[in-house]
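Question (not urgent): is this output format expected?
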Amino acid sequence: MHEYSFEKLVVWQKARDFVSFIYEITKNFPKEEKYGLVDQIRRASVSIAANLAEGSSRTSKKDQAHFTQLAYSSLMEVLSHFYIALDISYITKDTFVKIKNQSYDLSNLLNALRNSQLNKSTNEK
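Got this back:
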């Protein structure tokens, strides 16, 4: 079976794992948050993987780097939402630490990919 370029990216694979992790955590949020914080968190987490996939289809490395930056921005949005979830006791400190650790690992991969794309973009000219 054919494999698209984004499917080979370790960072995209880790982003998928992150989405599953986020969905599992947000299952325990109050029902009244289904269309509030839960929806926001889930959309932002899905956006990380989606932006990596979309960016991989771009022909220029500069465009690819732009979508990788969008993925990073979505990751920061997720983290910010979880600070709020911690503040209002929707998650425990231990859960927050797990989220923050996974966010840190994913952010390092995203930054490394973006830097690589930007370095390669200078050679495209």
